[in-house]
Specification:
Length: 156
Amino acid sequence: MKIALGMDHRGVDVGRLLAAHLPGEGHEVQVLGQCEGESWDYPDVTWAVARAVADGEAQRGILVCGTGIGASIAANKVAGVRAALVGDMTAAESSRRHNDANVLCLAGDALTDDRRILRIVAAWLAAPFDGGRHARRVNKIAAIERGENPVEAVKA
């Protein structure tokens, strides 16, 4: 899978871990906005990763900032992106199965155990979208992106 990866200065350690690990799992990783630890504004790298996913240049994106909140908020402003801030394997898997999340946001400050980080990312990458009733809900999210009332735009 082709993955766009971005991080700010507080996500450098997690970002480097993922950039080194994911190719060994068979993924093509494109690091966007190489951050070497200097102060880095997360919206800049978030834009690059979110656009890569929305434009089809990457199948998925992973963003790491201090709390993951800023990256999640910014990424979700890009039409076609469904970014999920997760901190455990259950949320990671659910974000894929139920929300078809295509961008994973992680909190670099809170996630300090490398094995835990890799398990969360592996669960997110492996989980399929369940479709069914969840597809109806994802379609309603797309309606909101278009400025439409989801109740009226997508009939059950």
